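Inputs:
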Amino acid sequence: MVKISSAKQLYKEYRDHMAKLADTRNALALMQWDQETYMPPKGGGFRAQQIASISELAHGLATSEKLEGLLKSLKDHAELTESERKNIELTAVDFEKQKKYRPEFVRRMSETISRSFNAWIIAKKENKFSLFEKELDELIQLKKEETRILGFAGHPYDALLDEFEKGMTVNLLDKIFSDLKPRLTEIYASITQTAQVDNSFLLKHFEKNKQWDFGMKIIRELGFDFDAGRQDLSAHPFTTSFNKNDVRITTRIKENDFNSMTWSCIHETGHALYEQGLPESEYGLPSGEYASLGIHESQSRLWENQVGRSLAFWQFHYPGLRNLFPEQLEGISLNSFYSGINMVKPSLIRTEADELTYHFHVMIRYDIEKMLISGELETTDIPACWKEQYRKYLGVTVPGDQEGCLQDVHWSHGSFGYFPTYSLGSFYAAQFFHTAQKELPTLKQDVEQGNTSGLLGWLRQRIHVHGRTYNSEELCEKASGEPLKVQYFLDYLLDKYRKIYQF
Amino acid sequence: MVKISSAKQLYKEYRDHMAKLADTRNALALMQWDQETYMPPKGGGFRAQQIASISELAHGLATSEKLEGLLKSLKDHAELTESERKNIELTAVDFEKQKKYRPEFVRRMSETISRSFNAWIIAKKENKFSLFEKELDELIQLKKEETRILGFAGHPYDALLDEFEKGMTVNLLDKIFSDLKPRLTEIYASITQTAQVDNSFLLKHFEKNKQWDFGMKIIRELGFDFDAGRQDLSAHPFTTSFNKNDVRITTRIKENDFNSMTWSCIHETGHALYEQGLPESEYGLPSGEYASLGIHESQSRLWENQVGRSLAFWQFHYPGLRNLFPEQLEGISLNSFYSGINMVKPSLIRTEADELTYHFHVMIRYDIEKMLISGELETTDIPACWKEQYRKYLGVTVPGDQEGCLQDVHWSHGSFGYFPTYSLGSFYAAQFFHTAQKELPTLKQDVEQGNTSGLLGWLRQRIHVHGRTYNSEELCEKASGEPLKVQYFLDYLLDKYRKIYQF
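Outputs:
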């Protein structure tokens, strides 16, 4: 009898410990959210230090002897349920990984990231990579050190990829991207042989407050629970979650560009719907966490692209939008609007790219990151390399660092290995949406009538509810019946652009 | 030589440890700020748990063996400077106190407070004390337990008073209030024998946005550094600080009451100017913290009352205010405005009370808290006792709990022993301002010209810069040359009301 209660008791202790760890990480997430939304300018210095201190405490909990003991006692324990066993197994993997980091390294990384983020803000504002170079280089050296700490079998960059997408490697990605590139180039070539669509009406003046209200309405209608989350403004849109009942998204508004806010609102809502759909009872456990960044991104992209940039979606929403902005959209038919929001055109800024050329932006970053981590590229040479790659991949001339290698926040956050998950997200999104369409025969009509609750329910049941119990590959098979196939994404693009560009 | 570097090294370790403790407490402060400003409704459950977890980590740092060892090694160390020695001495006192709390007690208190706060919100909204009674009673039982944990020589309530105002006791406060009461009653009697002033114009409609802009302007002009802080809206105005470079104040706006926002803005600015004036290099150390809540309140009250409700202040600001609200203030002279904002009239709500009757509100809470902690009053009898006291002290009839015993947030936060510091703050404020007037001969003319920087400089130099190096009594002597004398406050009131009410 003592033994029977002991497994339950031990698992409860494990759960409590994991909840405390999650509490600490969520405190960190709040500090970061505040840093990007409301923190006054001078607050950055101490905030960096505060984040470092809490990171250290979180690391202490993640690598504590208490947790180690619990994991040992519970490993393969006969009295655990399947789901409990899986949590223990996944936590043990995390534990082993976290143990590799010394507390000093965690603190150094955290402080370097904060300094680097502040340097990046100034450098971007001043349009000068040199103002960021020193901090970025320190961070890159730390990331190299991290690859050695974590270990890797193939390319050192594998160690970093694994952080965002478990099991992803340079080998796999090289293959995916080298297959993808000629196919995208081919579609792009077909597009350029037809007449370009017009999107100039999207660049008229759209009042800030009206845009905000429109965005909030769309977010609500897509199913975001405003009692369990909120939207605020920040320089760079992002989603963060402190638990499924408190999910925060941000956006930014450009008055002379309708695209800027709209797609970021729908994109971040996709992330948020995932977080709001995670199982509450599993708070702090792998079964209560998102599966991977690639899967997370599949949710944001599915809502942004497969839903938000579809004709069906705007069939419902366009009349309301035209009422809101009658002058700006005067004479623009639904079809013209739909073509305009899907215009394909190589550009400088990743977050403003269309669904096709977007992936060239990712490939460029992927190439550069690999070279930085392997040592083939020096930090100081990033701007030149960036310009060269943009000329080669996209045929555009980068006028300066602000619109070049300083455009993304990721490196300043130490997020090397993150960008490829954006492409993976698009691929997963296409495959999931393809499956949902098959299984929900009225999906298109529902969307045309402004009803996306069936789709959300499908995603909740197939993806959200599982947390991190399955890895991306397993989850993909569970949700769609087969492993990831990039072909679904290519088919989706081809179908969409053939209709719009008529080739 | 080894020994010489050792004191420096140990002190550095102590500083680093104290900074980490402060970082953790400031993370908590951010979580609480967010809870009262931006957190979505459903976020409360997990937030309570998250706050409890971080509280536990903070308690761990505050009572760690490492800190204990450092304090022992550094105690009376010959190589410390006077200021360093003082920090060690004060930290040792804190350490001994914190050591008395077991981690389970800290967590239980934190969780009970969160539940109690949420219950209070509902109870207040529903105007029903019974919805708060259970949680409040649990909290009161915990506070009683706390008095036993901390120990006390006289009244058990002394243990709680000491938390907010070191050295304050029931004995001292009973004396102060029993001296004060007849004097206030006397002044009040004089006022009631003259004609009441008019303040009806303050209850006209004042547009929300215009009020906000006016408040922001005043705050800025009083010297609040918006690069090192911000103002937001919350149900109950408060000030919190994450470090001197990030100080947050909140306010609320009532469109049908000019008083509501204005005085809270100036009041919280007073608190914020103190926090923004603490020495940055002493972050996390006693020398970098505020002296006591009484002293903190002296800063808010000095700015709110001695400055913000003075004729000199409005001599400068009234023309601008009249331009902003020409209809509302039509025909209201500066003198009528000044009289109106200083009207004395017994009322139900403490935070809306005038400078005289305010202290009766404090005395009522003080009496009730003493009785609750000693066990002379049961939690369930609070509403009846409240009504009886309001009738007795202020001659007003309490229509319901919302405007009665549920009006203040303090009890739901577990802050028993806090209210008396409000009265102490008024007394210190009057004494400090009296001294400043003597030492800054042009102070009145400066204020008349909208220049309060001389006064702020004086407070920075006399009070802010010292942190918690001196206790309230010592600081009062340092700043004003003598111990606290309530007479300064009474003289100030008498002088002000004699002119306004002409008796």
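Remarks. Chain B touches chain A through 37 residues (CB under 8 Å). Residues 170-200+287-501 of chain B form a domain with the Neurolysin; domain 3 fold (CATH 1.10.1370.30).
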